[in-house]
């Protein structure tokens, strides 16, 4: 037995770090599987046709009723009429025939003397014979000479009007399409247009007879278009879907053949389908367990492999699942009790005790679980509204908890949650197709208010237990980072001692200024230590690290020098990211210069090239977004400016600090910070007091504010 343990123990020692992910994952996976089993398992029924249902049965799945869909497709296809296509060739041919007739009439009339009144009838007969000889055989064979004689007897202006009326009427009729069964109606339409004209009776009669010749079939059955229309009609038929949760039969209703087929289709009459939801639940639990295990591993890694944060995360997650499960027992489709669930309390505790990232990721997992848990025990149905509500509630709590200073912050967060909950609930009501009374609106908003208050009470009540179990994490982490033995701080001290001294001075000033306006002084101090860490990449290019008369910028163009100076913010941010530093510290490194101008090199470049673009000599930013970063931005400019003075007087210090703050305000560098003008005034006085106690006589430095 002892030999066996001697073999097993080394195995676990080698994989000790993996257990930080495996054990929490197994625990949460098992909890998820057990709690959701009732929500996904499908009940089956032994029902016969034409029996009376003893209970209301709903569909556990969303599925297409193909038989009903096929029937609707057949009906839609049968309803499509035959399609005909109009032959433009036939239309153009008939219009050309009419045009040919009138052109020939005009030609014959021009060739003969129409003023002769002797034997005029014989003359018109001869002209008609001549006219027929000019026309196409199809025209001359189908139109009688009497029509030609009548046309030849008409004056030219009457013929022109007749041609216009007849051609227009014929074209309109032919464009509408003439099929075999409606040729006569087409002829009638042309005759009607002729009858309504001002032409004389003889000319109207001739044109009416001409219509019998001109109107022919020009619309023919189009097989391809008809087939395509039927295909399109079949495509437009929406499938008949039985939705998950849809009532198929109510209690006391007779089971008809149609209802029985639907019950059979959704699988509630067979025991075979029960295994699949359980397999799906197992897969869901495995996926959630995997992500939870991964997050647990990351937490343990960031906390020096301490097991306490993992235990806290598992307990809080189990508590979240337990709260949702208890609440789901009292929930059904007729109420909205899920709105009362104080899930935001878990997000608040995770943010305070672990970190923002973990709180956000687990909030997403809890929201996913809520979609399954609040499905009213209808397998296959998801309650999307509950998932969205829980997600907004938790994310809002995380965002509103900006600064963790005392427990009163949780109460302030609850006020913000009330607004968020009310907004989401009103959104749900407005998007719903159901009609709600004002009583319902106020009732649901009351549920949201209750959830916010319960979240605050629950968080405040549980927080002391976890605080004693884990300790205060945020300040501890900051104090750990402020240790001079930190690798990055050692690197800064050894490779850029001037910058290190500058950072310490900025830390002292900024911490005092932050505390004067209620900001986080410890965060400002630690952020100041690391804000210029990027200068260690090329320390000799920054003036505080240079030996006298040894400035490498003298050998470089102004633009290249400016790029080196500007790059230290991004270099510092990258170094901090590589060392897994907190986001707040990285933001200070990126934002402490805002988008300020490297004025010294910009002026030199401007002298060489008047077309120099000022934006090329500005830091990329972003602008400071917190009070701490904005204060560090001010102190970072003030400290070297005052240090450059020889024997600075209090008046000089006041003047420089005031000028620098005014310059940053006018340049818009503090636009994104939450600092007020009153706070800036307080900061100015505090910085001046700190500098007056620090600085005495100093070596005169050139005023290169951009080269800090």
From TrEMBL:
Residues 495-650 form the HD/PDEase domain. Pfam families: 7TM-7TMR_HD (PF07698), 7TMR-HDED (PF07697), HD (PF01966). NCBIfam families: HDIG. It comes from Oceanobacillus neutriphilus. This is Cyclic-di-AMP phosphodiesterase PgpH. Keywords: Membrane, Transmembrane, Transmembrane helix. The chain crosses the membrane at residues 275-293, 305-324, 336-354, 359-378, 408-430, 442-466. The gene is pgpH.
